[in-house]
Write a structure and sequence with these properties.
Elements lengths: L2 H10 L2 H4 L8 H14 L6 H7 L1 H15 L8 H28 L6 H23 L19 H4 L16 H21 L5 H17 L3 H15 L16 H17 L20 H11 L6 H4 L5 H4 L24 H31 L4 H17 L11 H32 L4
Length: 440
Amino acid sequence: MKLGALAIYIVLIQIGYLFNSFALSFLPMILMGFTSMKILEKSNLSFLKLVNINKNLLLFALVGSIALIRTNYIGISFVMSAIQVINLILFIYCFTLICNVEMKRNDANSYRVIITYLLTPFLLLAVTNFVLYFLGISLTQSQLGEESGTYQAILLSYIGIDITRVEFPLAGGLNNYASYVGAVFMINIALIMMLEKKSNLLRASAVVFFITLLLIDTRSSIIYPLLILLCLYLIRNKRRLSKGLKFVSLFVVVGPLLFTVLLPLVSSLPGFEFLERGDNDLQTGNARFFIWLFAFAEFMSFKPIHIFGWGDYGHFGSGVSKNWTSMFQGWANSEYKTPHNTMLSLIFDYGYIGLILYISVIWQSIERLRYIWDKKPIVAKSLYTFVLYNIITGVTEVLGGFYFPNYILLFYMVTIIINVQYYLLKRQENVDKLVLLPNL
């Protein structure tokens, strides 16, 4: 296996957190640094070019890094926050170098970067989870409440399999794990749909990811990918994406309002009862609507701190989360439970500045995907599914910060692949223009 993919896998297993080891927290930093040095031998990408390629993303990462340093989570030291920030910076730097070298070297099949350096590390993580689960090894604290009967695997029960939802050893929470497994499963299937020659690796990874999602039993992480893949199938032959599609990024803001209106309507329709875990579960967004009311109340009157936010776990630092702690009775760390919405969480942590930067990253990604669409259709279409998934899933989950660390790394990875592919195509376009200029 290539060194870069192995390094990413080590980062994903969050080894320092798993073993509660300060020393092991440096391992991702060392691996990323070593990998970067090896790649620099083959890359002519200067640091300034790297910054220019990822300008919007780096601004968002800067705001996120400041929030990590200002964390409100009791027990996380300044040094641990600083290590997390350095690991993030090295990850962005290293992954950009990997994409630049690999996509230049294999320009005709640049989509292989997605398979080798994105899907493969997440597949290894999923397989590791299965191995540890079957061996009965648990490495992280359970996030489930005491009323275990609530956590039956609903979807599997409809085909006669009666088990409780599986909390995998390296998952760090059901929604955490499901959020990024659902995303990579969708990208995986999108590649299978578009590639003429289907590799056994893609087939195997699709099966592993799908079984994982069924065992976790998070409904949105199965339903959203299937709906988005249907949309991709319907537009698969389009030569260009509509210019107005970039406004989809604003769904980050209006999404909670639409869900508040639409979910009660959907829950009243016949045929959707199979998605409910209990009374009014679907109608109230699994109690998310009540949480959002408390969170929105904080922002009804402006305060200067709303501009930059309270820092990481801002909902706790602001004191607002105490209003919904009782809803998570029996859950681990219930006082830190998030507002279950990306927009609200970003404002609590990064302020309005952070929210604007987050939307600008998505806006730019869609614009660049429009440019890539007819030139590198496999890259563009497979990653376009992620952009949609990120926006829609972010309505009911917190995806913009480091609460789901592997998901935010996936967000950075997808954005970097889009940025590097755009940069390489633009550079080639400029070269072609120079060649066509008449000699004076």
